[in-house]
Amino acid sequence: MQTRRLFLAGAASLMGPSLARAAQPVTVFAAASLQEALTAAGAAWTAQGGAPVRFSFGASSAMARQIAQGAPADLILTADEEWMDWLAGRALIVPASRRRLLSNQLVLIAPAGSKAALAIAPGFGLRGALGGGRLAVADPTAVPAGRYAKASLSRLGVWNSVSDQLLPAENVRAALAYVARGEAPLGIVYATDAKAEPKVRVVGTFPGSSHPPIVYPGAVTAASRNSAAAGFLGFLQTPKASAIFRRYGFGVLARPG
Q1: Which whole-number Å values give the CA distances from 206 to 59, 105, 150, 160, 214, in the listed order?
Q2: C-alpha span between 88 and 82 (Å, rounded)
Q3: DSSP 134-195
Q4: Which end of the chain is more exposed for a tag (fewer CB within 10 A), N or C?
Q5: How many H helices and E strands in the chain?
């Protein structure tokens, strides 16, 4: 009950800047793909009188496991529902605080100077397009972006043809970097990642029907004692924050009534 009361009290920080200024900095653990957009949202929150926000970005799997090991986070935003479910199953988040915030798309990328052309469709020639090179992808055994990639390639019937040519990365931004540096001829990342990196270009977008919906949920951690945490989470669903997320290429999910 105490964590629930803290969540409800934290929402009051949206009602007036004086309360928010008195709050301790909010520590947020978040999926790597949220880096630019969430940092901008944090700056907007603080500029309007909200508490300072500190971020730690990485693979959702790594962020969740760090919280399970006692890392002092107030909020967690993951790139899929599975890792949030994992936290919920261990009583590591406040259930009443959980919100579905954002959506994204999965894209195939190449270095900006590449001439690669490939139509994404069932049975498409991904292996041939690699030309003996490797496919950069976040670790498909744990990282959401990698899981989505494996699901999509499996649904399209090409996973088995390329599974031995993967260049696995610890998170989606590391996969993006492999392609940006020319270490991989192709990679699979989120559309927002490609938008943030001028050294890559989008070759094609994977059909949304080929993988589970890409959803970013957020929640207050059960260990948090920071009343401003719920206020910042609520701010992330305001029109001001929604405009920021859209600017960075995210889809914004409707806020429950």
Answers
A1: 21, 8, 11, 17, 12
A2: 10
A3: -EEEE-TTT-HHHHHHHHHHHHTT-HHHHGGGEEEESSHHHHHHHHHTTSSSEEEEEHHHHH
A4: C
A5: 12, 11
- Report the CATH number at residue 76: 3.40.190.10
pTM attached to this predicted model = 0.88
Residue 21's domain comprises 2-103+216-252
- Tell me the per-residue pLDDT of 110-161, one tens digit each, with 9 for 90 and over: 999 999 999 999 999 999 999 999 999 999 999 999 999 999 999 999 999 9
Q: Are 149 and 140 in contact (CB under 8 A)?
A: yes
Nearest to 97 by CA among 212, 213, 214, 223: 223
Any domain includes 167: yes
Sole residue written with tokens 């919100």: 99
166 falls within a domain:
yes
Helix, strand, coil distribution of the chain in percent, nearest 5: 45, 20, 35
For residues 48-64, one letter each, b for 16 or more C-beta atoms within 10 angstroms of the residue's C-beta and e for the rest, the string is eebbbbebebbbbbbbb
3-state secondary structure of 79: coil
CB 53 within 8 A of CB 162: no
